Amino acid sequence: MTETTHLRLPYLEAAQAQKHVTVNEALARLDALVSLSALSRSLAAPPASPTEGDRYIVAPGAAGAWVGWDGQIAIFLNGGWDVVAPSAGWRAWIADEGRDVLFHGGAWHDGAAAASSGAIMSIQIATEDFTLPAAASAQTSALIPDRAVVIGVTARVTEQITGAPTWAVGVPGASGRYGTQIGAALNSELNGVSGSPVGYYGDTPLLIEAETGAFTGGVVRLAVHYLKLSPPALV
Predict the structure, then answer these.
(1) How many structural domains are present in the chain?
(2) pTM
């Protein structure tokens, strides 16, 4: 049976019997692939109890019913698994990560905004829920990755901060770079847009500082907004 070029939808054949079967198969694929949203891209084998219409981007090392489907789109249809190979330029939302990915150069890329000759520019966000220790300052994990160009840092107080009326966010060696005089009350927020993007040449934590006294408690949700670049492909 012949198929369409891009979405691989089955064509009706001349004098074909049971035409509704082919039409329904095409409609099911359209429903699965248009505005593509995958539940996850971290599974290399099918989940134990899939639901009709579930979609996954198959992780490397595909096994079981997905063997040989690395990087492809697995769709649970009519009680079984169907597969579609993505084409360059396809985008998908990854539900369990809350991020957009682009298929380019035979691979999926996080938050890609532009791609040419294998070079990728992606817009990414790194987040962390950070529990403040009993101290005047503390560092997060290395939220800013090596070679990131940071546009800004945002934050929200998700559990009221105690021990300090205000606080600041920066990086080691640049105290308060992304914000000062941030409130301690629940739901206080920071929108620390950089005056100009800042490049980092090594994995870097955020520095959280009490501006008076020391923290005794509280939780803040931090988000680093950054650009990531990759060089052109060899071939």
Answers:
(1) 1
(2) 0.77
